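Subject: Sanity check before I submit

Could someone independently write out the structure tokens for this chain? I want to compare against mine line by line before I put it in a report. The sequence has 583 residues.
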Amino acid sequence: MEMNELQTLRHSASHVMAQAVKRLYPNTKLAIGPAIDTGFYYDFDSEHTFTMEDLEKIEAEMKKIAKENLKIERFELPRDEALELMKDEPYKTELINDLPEDATISFYRQGDFTDLCAGPHVNYTSKIKAFKLLSATGAYWRGDEHNKMLQRIYGTAFKTKDELTEYLEKREEARKRDHNKLGRELELFTTVDIIGQGLPVMLPKGARIIQLLQRFVEDEEQKRGWQLTKTPLMAKSDLYKLSGHWGHYKEGMFVLGDEEKDKEVYALRPMTCPFQYQAYLNRGRSYRDLPMRLNETSTLFRNEASGEMHGLIRVRQFTISEGHLMCTPEQLEDEFKGCLDLTNYVLKTLGLLEDVTYRFSQWDPDDKEKYIGTPEQWDEAQGVMKKILDHLEIPYTIGVGEAAFYGPKLDIQIKNVYGKEDTLVTIQIDQMLAEKFGMEYVDKDGSRKHPYIIHRTSLGCYERTLALLIEKYAGAFPAWLAPVQVKILPIADRHHEYAAKIKEKLADAGIIRVEIDDRAEKIGYKIREAQLEKVPYMLVLGDKDIENGAVSVRSRKDGDIGSKSIDEFISELSEEIRTKAIK
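---
Independent answer below. Compare away.
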């Protein structure tokens, strides 16, 4: 089935669901119900709170409607008659009133159910056979948190039951890998209502992985000539007004103070660029100082809408590997390539590079209010970036309207287990903010020029990266990243002393994330527990191991791999950690 046919089927399924809801809960008001990439949804305003049990009832009613084989018919009405027809549906009335005066106002009728809709739809409800309702959640009307919270029911539909079964099996596998579920089960992170939404607490194991990632990235940046800075977490509004963030991004910031009452108003930083520029501005610069590469492991704050929050993927406080590079026009392409090489190396090491796509994010010339600069400046910046991307043979798509307010960018995109796409890394070209901040350098001919600025992340948000790694590896991290690398499992109390010696020897070799399970439990139970915790290696210690001065090694992937000398095990594991091998 072609995608547009499938979307038509799914759109029709959303109407059947709405009809079923109106039959079961007649006072419910209808909002919107489109087809989406993974199925469909409909938003409802209902006094009844929908539960999974309700979804089963609605699904059963949908099956009845499908069996009734109702004809789905399109018709049109003039505005006054359309408003009269929908007078008891306030959301539909609002949508009609928002339509242009000359717009065609179309409806679809199936039996006793009529809905405002542009279509298209299948011609009979019996065509909708293989469907499943999946979940109910909250959603603001028109996605605006200032509007009423509605209830959104998600479902999916396919042409055949086999296709539906295959999708549901994949979805169940995705659910098992969902970082929001698995990350909590593995005690990597938690969220607490009293702290607030979008403000996760990293538990010891999760904090250790973040620390390992940060050390890896900072060390790699240092090797490539980046200089570390440390800048404040907040600043006066004056800084953000100068950069343009106050006018273009204030709604996404946490503002401290009242502009009408307070002499000085501060805000937590949503980005690091205007702070790092001060390192460049610390003294006069010449072309000999360029390129100047400044990096920082930055904690940032963004006032995301509550409906956008999701585990570690989208949060209000996060840490990012942020950097800003000042260079001459002649250096721009090589430095851009260097930024891309860095991020590709980091992503490849983590096993994520094969999962990413590239988007050339451009400005929207029809929405100039979103941006600073002139059309000529944007044309120049985007032309320079296109030339670089084409020269580097980057296989990109184009995202109009996705640029930063000050310049175009290369967004490196990645999908979570449910297929939802987010930006993981950005590399941006900016020729506007240097002028705003008075950033100059003296060129070879003695003239004063503004440098190009490259904004970049090496890895991106560490919280989002951790979420993606949890889902990629189903919590079974490569040994170098595993919060616990080795679990020592003595079979009986008499083996505890030997276990302690093995742990000490591992620590001396630099393998320090080791635990001993010395509980009075059967060895089979200890192995199962370690397996559930996704520990890469287990060392089972018994009488023969003590006699031979050896360890019995179990791999979480391959099971029992036999007896080894401790030196042999240390050598093999050390090499696996050193090379950051993915096993």
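---
OP: Matches mine. For the report I'm noting this point. The CA atoms of residues 130 and 163 lie 8 Å apart.
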